[in-house]
Give the backbone structure.
Amino acid sequence: MDVLIYGLLLQLTTFITFVRPEQPSSLPAIFLYDDFGHCKAVASVYCYARTILRVDQFPAGFEIPQTESTDRIVHNHRPHCLELGICLRNCEQEVNKLTASSRETLFQPQIPVNFTFLIPSELFPTMQSDKRRYETLVNVCVNQRLRARYNMTGYTTLEYCRPDPKQSARPYGTVIKRRKIVIGFVLDR
């Protein structure tokens, strides 16, 4: 009987040694950029975006560091705020492999935060149309990547998109056109 108990204890000890608790997932880098040169070579649109991660998906025990003081100076980086560069051709290929229900699951709505993290869209004349065209695609694509690598998701919004290099130049806004007319008129005198 003692030999049997000893044998069971030995096997149990061996089993416990090799079975480890699941390691907490690592956090993504705060800067994640697709290769811009490759994107340009395949004549694709390249977008800059920001992602706010869902902090309820961070590893157990992880605390987001206090980043702001009363003087509103940011002292640490925000690990839940990512800056991205996305090649849309790569994203389209990744998202096309997903089922419709997977795409729907991966789309994340806006996550409210108490800080400004975007350049205002009004500074770029084509940004509103780019957001309508690309933002859902980029949101799903980024969440697919984050879920596969880190088991996380977040809300992604576009900041600026660079057009396909072979595409004709983007139209100037009316304000820029007026400035050129005024400057041209002044220089003619």
In short: The chain is about 40% helix and 15% strand.
